[in-house]
Amino acid sequence: MPPKTQPHGPYARHAMAYVLAGGRGSRLMELTDRRAKPAVYFGGKTRIIDFALSNALNSGIRRIAVATQYKAHSLISHLQRGWSFFRSERNESFDILPASQRVSEELWYLGTADAVYQNIDIIASYMPQYIVILAGDHVYKMDYEIMLCEHAESGADVTVGCIEVPRMEATAFGVMHVDDNDKIIEFHEKPKDPPAMPGHPDLALASMGIYVFDTKLLFEVLQEDAEDPNSSRDFGKDIIPKLVKKGTAHAHLFGRSALRSTPDAPSYWRDVGTLDAYFQANIDLTSITPDLDLYDHSWPIWTHSEMVAPAKFVHDMEGRRGEAISSLVSGDCIVSGARLSNSLLFTGVRVNSFTTIDRAVILPRVNVGRHARLKNVIVDRGVTIPEGLVVGEDPVLDAQRFRRTDAGVCLITQPMLDALK
Predict the structure, then answer these.
(1) Which of the residues 151, 235, 257, 343 has the least number of beta carbons within 10 Å of its own beta carbon?
(2) Could you read off the pLDDT of 214-226 as tens digits, one per residue?
């Protein structure tokens, strides 16, 4: 059955969402040894890419393409299983576009702009009026129809999605300097002294990696960029700065189109590209009212959902009671005489008796042996935690055995455990 979504306006039905999902995600360390960053698990059931895709679908966009490149098998498998409900007879399409050396037999995707340029003929076959370029590796809820409307009414060459950040934290982003009408007058890539927003000296506008173009103009710009031998073929480094200098670029503030958990909640956008950021964003979901609302049926996050049994908690005696406090527990999990707190369990996790787990993100199909004590950990998919393993109590020992961050979060993978034998 096709998903039911909110009513949408006139622009989304004439748009295509093009999701850039080829990133290595190297800052997530061993979590991306076997999968691209957009395919990393998040939130108990979903993958990171499901957020951008769901935003497009819920916004009313029915033509979607996903460009993949590095370690793409897990990602492509997920997309095939979870996003195959689009129907051509309803003027819908969902294309997976691996780097396949279509333009040159020697070149893979050379940058984000090249990942679009190499597939211009496929995009043109659908004749969308607008292209929404999206990053596939951020977690947020956003109505792209609002941004599309702004773009169409402004007449800009490009509209750039921007998020407000503390000014000195913007040094890691592309930063927009805008006038009072949100026209971008300067673009700075990772500036040491970011320009402030008009009227807000302590804030800066950072690029979210979301761009809206008229399709015809985008094709012209990409063709010109492809012929420039000095270009790095990147939207943030090449395309956007050129349009800021030679054309008209408009800034769209994320707060105007963000979906919030409550009317008073802050707009939520996370780059979960480091182990600490990934861990904290998942753990934040265990709070009573998290800023990211996964229970909002009006703006659901679509994904591939396995047909599994419900979660189960067994045993009820002192010291051996199956219980979970302030935790998210997915289907097919069995908590057998163990205690969880402030933790998130993905599908099919087994936690055996006399174990205590606190502040843990445990990916699918993990088996935790008896008498284990785990705190401040990320456990990769399919890992078998041996009986009696203690992590999170001795920083020196943890760092010798596992990947430990400066914030004290330990990533546990099967090869790390195998090396202990």
Answers:
(1) 257
(2) 999 999 999 999 9
Residues carrying CATH 3.90.550.10, the chain: 11-286
* pTM as predicted: 0.94
* Sequence-ordered list of residues with C-beta below 8 angstroms from that of 364, at least 6 positions apart, any chain: 41, 330, 346, 347, 348, 349, 381, 382
Largest Cα–Cα separation, the chain: 72
Q: Which helix (H) or strand (E) holds 80?
A: helix 73-82
What residue numbers does the annotated binding site for alpha-D-glucose 1-phosphate cover?
A: 109, 174, 189-190, 207
Q: Which of 49, 69, 73 lies closest to 118 in space, CA to CA?
A: 69
> Where do the CATH 2.160.10.10 domains begin and end in the chain?
312-419
Cβ atoms 378, 395 nearer than 8 A: no
Measured CA angle at 66 (ends 363, 189), to 5 deg: 90
- The predicted-structure confidence for 313-366, as pLDDT tens digits, reads as follows 999 999 999 999 999 999 999 999 999 999 999 999 999 999 999 999 999 999
For residue 328, what are the contacts with CB-CB under 8 A and spacing of at least 6? 43, 44, 285, 286, 343, 344, 345
- For residue 220, what are the contacts with CB-CB under 8 A and spacing of at least 6? none
Kindly list the distances between the CA atom of residue 181 and the CA atoms of 164, 209, 241, 250, in Å, as whole numbers in the listed order: 16, 21, 19, 9
The three-class DSSP label of residue 155 is: coil
Question: What is the Cα–Cα distance from 34 to 30, expressed in whole angstroms?
Answer: 8
Q: Can you give the pLDDT at residue 104? A: 53
Domain 11-286: CATH superfamily, name plus number? Spore Coat Polysaccharide Biosynthesis Protein SpsA; Chain A (3.90.550.10)
Question: Residues within the annotated binding site?
Answer: 109, 174, 189-190, 207
Listed residue (223, 220, 235, 172) closest to 18, CA to CA: 235
Architecture per CATH, domain 312-419, reads as 3 Solenoid (2.160)
* Residue 412 dihedral angles phi and psi, to the nearest 5°: -115, 125
- For residue 262, which phi and psi values (nearest 5 degrees)? -140, 160
Closest by CA position to 204, among listed 173, 181, 227: 173
Kindly provide the b/e burial profile for residues 180-200, where b requires at least 16 CB atoms within 10 angstroms of the residue's own CB: eebbbeebbeebeebbbbeee
Using CA atoms, how far apart are residues 338 and 334, in angstroms rounded to an integer?
10
Cα Rg, the chain, nearest whole Å? 23
